[in-house]
């Protein structure tokens, strides 16, 4: 290979502000540029969270146009390796498969899953879909997952040495706390799968116990009007005056929310990958209350830098919040451990190093 190896990176860029788009943006602007020539191909079709996963004739035509442009980029750039993020839904994977098929004719293709629902999806899918997925993955030289406990998802498709682990990692411009008093932070899109309603129910339980000496900031985008009204009703009916709802935040404004927080809560009830908000919370030294979804437990160590709670458990969320609210020493200890775990495992440098090892491993083979 003459000069730097050429890596074609497929992926969405914000907006909308979602994990995979954040990851693509970080990778493209990382020090990987010094070792490889990174070429980006934007696969974004949806500009809003609310339109994701919804079929339309317009999207179909946009997809065909994307494949045409993709092939042209490959012929022009002649990449050595192509990184293709894959979906874990039938409609999503059907849209991803042509990127694999077209790319594999010209270069090595490695896929990446930024979730953990892959096996659950295929368990309920048809035999035809399973065969289609198996054939598509057979064209690839390997797969990247977000945590060691997610490697099992691809054991039926790749040898162990072809299943690579690259946790999310990022560097942040941390801000200084400007608000007084205790603040709980929820920062994720307001989806039913993220269980924001359970967090609100936990606040109701705390209020009934007379624990109101804190505020909650919650920022994100809504994708379902019924769920939005359900959450707003919980706030209104229970007079949760200590809750402030904010639109999606990014950049310095987002980091200010983390800086002003004393603890972070994110308790999804559906499979996750390695949520960026967890990494950001740890970078800011926050104790974290979360559920055991995806690779979360590889970041949040129960009783060390936060608490792992069962899904759909407002009562237990309330209990753990109460522990953190009443104990300054517990918050301090968890905060220190969150920061240490972040610095050891989840910085941009760590993610870049892991990706570099994967790329070099695959290219040598």
Number of strands: 12
Number of domains: 2
Secondary structure category: alpha/beta
Spatially, the strands of the biggest sheet line up as 2-1-3-4-5-6
CATH homologous superfamily descriptor of the largest domain: Glycogen Phosphorylase B
Report the radius of gyration as a whole number of Å. 21 Å
Intertermini distance: 13 Å
Mean pLDDT score = 94
Largest sheet: 6 strands, parallel
Tell me the helix content.
40-55%
Under the CATH scheme, which class of the largest domain? Alpha Beta
- The proportion of residues in beta strands is 15-25%
In one word, what is the shape? Answer: globular
Which oligomerization state do the chains in this entry correspond to?
A: single chain
Order of helices and strands: EHHEHEHEHHEEEHEHEHEHEEHHH
Give the number of helices: 13
- Supply the CATH architecture of the largest domain: 3-Layer(aba) Sandwich
Unreliable spans are 48-52
**Any idea of the CATH topology of the largest domain?**
Rossmann fold
Characterise the protein shown here:
- The longest helix has 21 residues, at 57-77.
- The protein contains 13 helices and twelve strands.
- It has two domains: 6-170 and 347-364, Glycogen Phosphorylase B (Rossmann fold), CATH 3.40.50.2000; 182-345, Rossmann fold (3-Layer(aba) Sandwich), CATH 3.40.50.2000.
- Strands 2-1-3-4-5-6 form a six-stranded parallel β-sheet, sandwiched between helices. Strands 9-8-7-10-11-12 form a six-stranded parallel β-sheet, with helices on both faces.
- Helix 8 links the parallel strand 8 and strand 9 (243-246).
- The chain is globular and about 65 Å long.
- Helix 7 packs across helix 11 (314-326).
- The protein has 365 residues and is α/β, with parallel strands linked by helices.
- The protein has helices spanning 19-28, 32-35, 57-77, 90-104, 118-124, 127-137, 196-208, 225-237, 251-260, 276-283, 314-326, 328-345, 348-364, and strands at residues 6-11, 37-42, 81-86, 108-113, 142-145, 163-165, 182-187, 214-219, 243-246, 263-266, 288-291, 306-309.
């Amino acid at each position: 290979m003459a000069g730097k190896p050429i890596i074609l990176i497929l992926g969405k860029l914000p907006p909308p502000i979602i994990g995979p788009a954040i990851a693509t943006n970080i990778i493209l602007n990382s020090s990987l540029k010094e070792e490889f020539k990174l070429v980006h191909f934007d696969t974004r079709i949806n500009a809003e969270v609310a339109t994701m996963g919804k079929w339309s004739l317009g999207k179909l035509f946009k997809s065909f146009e994307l494949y045409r442009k993709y092939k042209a980029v490959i012929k022009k750039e002649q990449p050595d390796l192509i990184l293709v993020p894959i979906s874990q839904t039938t409609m999503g994977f059907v849209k991803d498969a042509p990127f694999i098929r077209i790319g594999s004719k010209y270069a090595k293709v490695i896929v990446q899953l930024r979730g953990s629902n892959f096996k659950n999806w295929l368990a309920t899918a048809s035999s035809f879909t399973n065969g289609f997925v198996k054939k598509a993955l057979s064209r690839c030289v390997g797969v990247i997952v977000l945590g060691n406990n997610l490697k099992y998802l691809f054991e039926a498709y790749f040898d162990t040495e072809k299943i690579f682990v690259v946790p999310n990692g990022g560097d942040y411009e941390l801000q200084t706390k400007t608000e007084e008093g205790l603040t709980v932070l929820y920062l994720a899109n307001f989806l039913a799968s993220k269980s924001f309603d359970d967090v609100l129910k936990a606040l109701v339980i705390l209020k009934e116990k007379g624990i109101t000496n804190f505020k909650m900031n919650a920022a994100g985008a809504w994708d379902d009007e019924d769920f939005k009204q359900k959450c707003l009703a919980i706030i209104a009916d229970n007079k949760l005056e200590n809750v402030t709802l904010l639109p999606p935040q990014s950049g310095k404004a987002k980091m200010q929310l983390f800086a002003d927080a004393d603890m972070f809560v994110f308790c999804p009830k559906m499979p996750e990958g390695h949520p960026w908000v967890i990494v950001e919370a740890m970078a800011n030294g926050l104790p974290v209350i979360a559920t055991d979804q995806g690779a979360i437990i590889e970041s949040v160590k129960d009783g060390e830098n936060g608490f792992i709670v069962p899904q759909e458990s407002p009562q237990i969320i309330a209990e753990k919040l109460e522990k953190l609210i009443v104990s300054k020493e517990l918050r301090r200890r968890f905060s220190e451990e969150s920061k240490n775990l972040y610095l050891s495992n989840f910085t941009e440098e760590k993610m870049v190093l892991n990706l570099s090892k994967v790329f070099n491993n695959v290219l040598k083979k």
